[in-house]
Amino acid sequence: MEFAELIKTPRADNAVLHGPRCPAVRGTLCLTGHHLIFSSRRKEGGEELWLLHANIDCVEKRFVGSLGTIVIKCKDLRIIQLDIPGMEECLNIASSIEALSTLDSITLMYPFFYRPMFEVVEDGWRSYLPEQEFELLSSVTDEWRLSCANKDFSVCPTYPPVVIIPKCIDDEALRKVAVFRYGGRFPVLSYYHKKNGMVMMRSSQPLTGTNGRRCKEDEKLINATLRPGKRGYIIDTRSLNVAQQARAKGGGFEQEVYYPQWRRIHKCIERFNILQESLIKLVEACNDQSHNMDRWLSKLEASNWLTHIKEILTAACLAAQCIDREGASVLVHGSDGTDSTLQVTSLAQIILDPRCRTIRGFEALVVREWLQAGHPFQLRCAQSAYSNTKQKWEAPVFLLFLDCVWQILRQFPCSFEFNEQFLIMLFEHAYASQFGTFLGNNENERSKLKLTQKTMSLWSWVNRSEELARFKNPLFEANSLVIWPSVAPQSLQLWEGVFLRWNRPSKFLDEAQEEVLNIINYNRELQAKVNALRRQLAELETDDRMQENLTLPVMNGVSSQAGNGLTQTSLKQLPSRSWQWEGEERRKK
Amino acid sequence: MEHIRTTKVEQVKLLDRFSTSNKSLTGTLYLTATHLLFIDSSRRETWILHHHIAAVEKLPLTTSGCPLVIQCKNFRIVHFVVPRERDCHDVYNSLLQLSRTAKYEELYAFSYNPKQNESEQVKGWQLIDLAEEYKRMGVPNDYWQLSDANRDYKICETYPRDLYVPRTASKPIIVGSSKFRSKGRFPVLSYYHKDKKAAICRCSQPLSGFSARCLEDEHMLQAISKANPSNRYMYVMDTRPKLNAMANRAAGKGYENEDNYSNIRFQFVGIENIHVMRSSLQKLLEVSGTKGLSVNDFLSGLESSGWLRHIKAVLDAAVFLVKAIAVESASVLVHCSDGWDRTSQVCSLGALLLDSYYRTIKGFMVLIEKDWISFGHKFSDRCCQLDGDPKEISPVFTQFLESVWNLMEQFPQAFEYNEAFLLQIHEHVHSCQFGNFLGNCQKEREELKLKEKTYSLWPFLLDEQKKYQNPLYSPDFSPELTLLEPNTVSFNFKFWRNMYHQFDRSMHPRQSVYDLIMNMSEQNKQLEKDIKELEAKIKQKNGQPDAVILKEHQQSAHPAPVALKTPPCFKKEQPLIPVNDAVRTIEGSNTADNRYSEFMEEFSKAEPAVVSLEYGVARMTC
């Protein structure tokens, strides 16, 4: 086994672990193929740290005499420090960790070795299939069809084998459109707004080049989504400047002359290394507690992180606005259609579609709009904020998306079935996981890796009731409305749950959170009890009355009537949580 | 009334403060003796107390009318457009007159009549009794006594009559020391820590100049440190930046020379003066009031305003004070220049961190009465209650409230009161509706006969205390909470949106977990009551009460299967407690709240051939 060669020293005794926000502990350090394990010798508590090598972003070592210190910076932004006696041991361990955390072959990653300790009730790999999605769609419209033109990934290598396209476009035309779009990413359906039948599509940039090439099939495809006499909007996630420059490299944007029914709006969402730099600067600022106020604020500003959040949210609101308020269809694309495009389309759906605010709906969204849509997770999430090897394809695109969701969640804390922990969990698993879900860059790569057979899906684990309990928002109230977040800078906040998680004591905040839960649970308990008591009292009262009426011959008829009345009233009396929306509906009427 | 030139103007537009496309409501503007009232076409009312008006500005005439901008002390900003210039001029002049009061007797508090009878009024004023509060702290005792030196305000006009000083500080020492202190504000007890036997004392700067000394003052400090049996030395905290303190020496004032005082440890903590704070807030409001603000402009504006830096400095000073007392059991003497601004901030926050009593609703009232009102924080000057020197205005008390808010954010369970309580107090510090905050010191208040002519705010707040109760509060939830040890790392300080944008609804979360929990915990109390009643009724109906209750307990865990058979009378049952719809309202469901509608308006206009980049940006940035 290759791992044995990489592990020069498998074990170090008398090591000292300095974790964030906890006192130093002495114990034994062990290295396995996929984990760094530290167990303290103290019996009580039995503290053990299991750290996935894949979670390690960067390893630093320094020496004071013969005492070596290894600083391990993780992708989930945690920093731990290990003091290891003996210079050679320390060097060995450091280089072993380094080697194990930078394995270049995907098939050596932990998900290929992980065996679940839980019973698999539902295979997460089959939880969210495009066919199911299409079935839902066809129950409301017949204008779309499922195309298998890409079943061998030959039309577009980064698309899934089946996609949803307008019914009137045949596979032949589709191939022509694919040639006209960067990376073959032709326009496909991203979201159907049931309320008014408007749609959101996504694609990559058209390859117009400098001489303004056109493609009639492309025009036909996207026009097929327009109602007669209606206009649509193309949201280009690049600034006009950038889009114009792209023409020199063969890319470009839809020309007005060829797309007269479409109106183009440019929004500038940053990409790649600019985002990575932003994350690095933000994390740096958050990790230095010695900053005075001015320095902290100027560092926070210089990171530009919240600016990116605002830009992305604004673009998503714009797309949602076009669809819901303007009653227009929308096509979203940037250059590749794999990053900012997906941020916009997925956030717009969270704003518009109540289903995406449920746990399963959100998981389906991540699968549909990120995994199947071909966001290159492997490339983007290879490193996090601490890595020294800055590759230009690394970018916290998905983390920014999660942060935006968190911002909306904060503004509508009762409208989401999941809580902040759920988002943090997704962030962690996108960067390092025992599950295969986020491996690979697209469905093509995933099918070659045979992930569905060889690894476990994250959803198989999450969707078990034991795990779900941790991720449920106790205040959730299904809300069928469109939710418009505020994007004013005063309304946006630093996501402390991720960026300050390891830097500030959270004891009091956690306890307060617990108290919130207690109040909610107590409320439910009391409501149930009141209902039960009322029923019992009512029962006693009828018993009385029945005794009085016992002599009446029509007794049977009365009681069956009573039974019917009950089913309705008792529904109302139960602590059903639907009452909250009654007022809302009344107002709408 | 003679100031009101026009009482009613119709067809007035109220502009949305942050709208980029001048969205507005149309309605009628009314001027009353005490309020400005705007009623829009959907009958929504906006009331603005004249005393809350900080500034009125008439902008140049536009095609739609004459704009009038009103800035309020509670950070509300309203922007009217009056169709006729003459009307606008009249309203403007009336408001100028009405918002600038020359005499205390013209303030709202003297005409406000809450329909209380005389005895209620008297009782209201007796609600907070400072003598009682000192007793609670444990003074007088073997070391501290009540001094009658200032009974007639002869030694210090801006101090209260009743002052606590060390037993060993004789009257000549007090008099001598007061002569050596700015405005006669000699060292007195502000808070006594029973367990540590350590005291927080307060005073003003010494008149030391470059070399002057005063034996009585030195004795005074010695008396204070000797009044603490657990520690020989004491801290003297000068809350000013060192440079300011040194500059004061040239004017014959200054700070204590460690060589002249035995056993003192002298420390500067660097809180800026009222003028710096005033302009800091000014800058903060300019930034937060900008239309179409970018994140970076907001953050750099926040930084350059220095506001959060000042809040942190105040809280850092309080933390320093608390450490001296809690860790070293040392007494601390706090002063600044006059000892009524920064000193009040630091002493009151220190006590709040040390003593959980001040984290109760009643205790917080006591704290404000003691360290702010009685010790002569110049509320009238700082809040510009009367038309006076604009250089005296400063948000010192607002900073205190903001520091408390920051503590609440860090310790959500430590406070009996909530943010709404702080906001309400802030509202009334400026409203001049109640007598508590009128005037600059106790002597002045007595001369104004406030207790006879006006009402006290506190009983009104207590009456509606349900609104101000923190549902998460747990008074004895952990002993460590008696002492709060806040973390003052910079990232813990946040912009207080609910204070500075209290009236800008679109900026706030559309659903409030806090309100929901507050309602729920209120509802829980009612449900507990219902259960008792129901159980009693069942007991009555049933011969064997115990068995029933037991059965009920089992049932309550599984409410679903209970729906077996119910009689028709079930319908007549009372519904569950009505839940306040308002809490559940999702305001954001209306795009108008978010100004996306502006974007929509733009859409409906004739479309330009080319969509410019600015188009999207300008429309969508809110």
Count of DSSP-assigned helices of chain B:
23
Percent strand of chain A: 5-15%
Report the structural category of chain B: alpha+beta
**Integer-rounded radius of gyration of chain A:** 28 Å
Query: Major beta sheet of chain B, specifics?
Result: 7 strands, antiparallel
* End-to-end Cα distance of chain A: 69 Å
Q: Give start-end ranges of low-pLDDT stretches of chain B.
A: 547-622
Number of strands of chain B: 14
Strand order of the largest sheet of chain A: 4-3-2-1-7-6-5
End-to-end C-alpha gap of chain B: 41 Å
Query: What is the molecular shape of chain A?
Result: globular
Count of helical segments of chain A? Answer: 22
Mean pLDDT of chain A: 90
CA gyration radius of chain B, whole angstroms: 28 Å
Widest sheet of chain B: strand order?
A: 4-3-2-1-7-6-5
Helical content of chain A, roughly?
40-55%
Pfam families (chain A): Myotub-related (PF06602), PH-GRAM_MTMR6-like (PF21098)
Coiled coil (chain A): 509-550
Protein name (chain A): Myotubularin-related protein 9
Domain Myotubularin phosphatase (chain A): 124-499
Structure characteristics:
heterodimer; A: 589 residues; alpha+beta; five-stranded mixed beta sheet; B: 622 residues; 23 helices; 14 strands; 40% helix
Care to give the gist of this entry?
Chain A has 589 residues and is of the alpha+beta class. Chain A is 44% helix and 14% strand. In chain A, a hairpin with a 2-residue loop joins strand 5 (56-64) and strand 6.
Describe what this molecule looks like in 3D.
The complex is a heterodimer of chains A (589) and B (622). Chain A is globular, with a radius of gyration of 28 Å. Chain A has 589 residues and is α+β, with helices and mostly antiparallel strands. Chain A has 22 helices and 14 strands. In chain A, a hairpin with a 4-residue loop joins strand 6 and strand 7 (79-85). The longest helix of chain A is centred in the last third of the chain and has 43 residues, at 507-549. In chain A, helix 4 crosses helix 5 (216-223). Helices cover 44% and strands 14% of the residues of chain A. Chain A has a seven-stranded antiparallel β-sheet, covered by helices on one side. Residues 553-589 of chain A have low confidence and may be disordered. Chain B has 622 residues and is an alpha+beta fold. Chain B has helices at residues 85-99, 118-126, 130-137, 171-179, 215-226, 242-249, 274-288, 295-305, 307-326, 342-354, 361-374, 379-382, 396-410, 419-431, 442-447, 450-453, 457-463, 497-500, 513-541, 545-556, 581-584, 596-604, 613-620; strands at 8-15, 24-31, 35-40, 45-49, 53-58, 66-72, 77-82, 144-147, 163-166, 188-193, 198-203, 234-238, 264-268, 331-335. In chain B, the strands form three sheets. Chain B has a seven-stranded antiparallel β-sheet with strand order 4-3-2-1-7-6-5, with helices on one face. The model of chain B is unreliable at 547-622 (pLDDT under 50). At the A-B interface, strand 13, helix 8, helix 9, helix 20 and helix 21 of A face helix 8, helix 9, helix 19, helix 20 and helix 22 of B.
